[in-house]
UniProtKB/TrEMBL annotation:
It is a multi-pass membrane protein. Its EC number is 3.4.23.43. Pfam families: Peptidase_A24. This is Prepilin peptidase. Keywords: Cell membrane, Hydrolase, Membrane, Transmembrane, Transmembrane helix.
Length: 169
């Protein structure tokens, strides 16, 4: 892991943290997309000013395109910020791979949640239960009541896929 660029290591950690927080609370702390944005700009500046500007423009464009989806309730605002911030650290082609991987991961997540409504048994949690069991019980309840997906999980999967295919790994 010592040969991984610092951007990839920190971005992966931030994506995993965002996914875990989204599963637990359905909220993504604003600090995560902000940190990804700063990290991405610094990473792209190492390549060049033009590349940094192009990536910043791509991230902004993605944010503007996805914002109406968030305003209609089809995507969370934190998800929109996370996708836009992640795109800032990627070249345009890598951004395309990230979006495609995220869409496919979101499809798998959606299918899992639909199937989970019928497969996952109702779980009761009482007393001293470990954290994983409590999270699974809450997710089972959310599935049955058709609650929102923790889409940061799909974003994290898409991000990890693209981060692992970047040159230098």
């Amino acid at each position: 892991m010592s040969d991984l660029p610092i951007h990839q290591v920190f971005a992966a950690g931030l994506l995993i943290y965002a996914a875990a927080r989204d599963v637990a609370t359905r909220l993504i702390p604003d600090a995560v997309p902000i940190a990804l944005l700063v990290l991405g700009v610094l990473s792209r500046l190492m390549v060049g000013w033009t590349e940094a500007g192009t990536s910043l423009l791509a991230g902004l464009l993605l944010f503007v395109i996805l914002l109406p989806l968030a305003m209609r309730g089809w995507l969370g605002g934190g998800d929109v910020k996370l996708i836009g911030a992640m795109a800032v650290g990627l070249a345009p082609y890598e951004t395309w791979v990230f979006i495609m991987a995220t869409v496919f991961a979101g499809g798998v997540l959606g299918i899992a949640y639909i199937a989970g409504r019928y497969v996952v048994p109702e779980t009761r949690v009482a007393g001293n239960t470990n954290l994983l069991r409590r999270v699974l019980a809450v997710e089972a309840w959310r599935m049955r009541r058709r609650g929102p997906l923790p889409y940061a999980v799909a974003i994290a999967v898409g991000g990890l896929i693209v981060l692992n295919t970047l040159p230098g790994v």
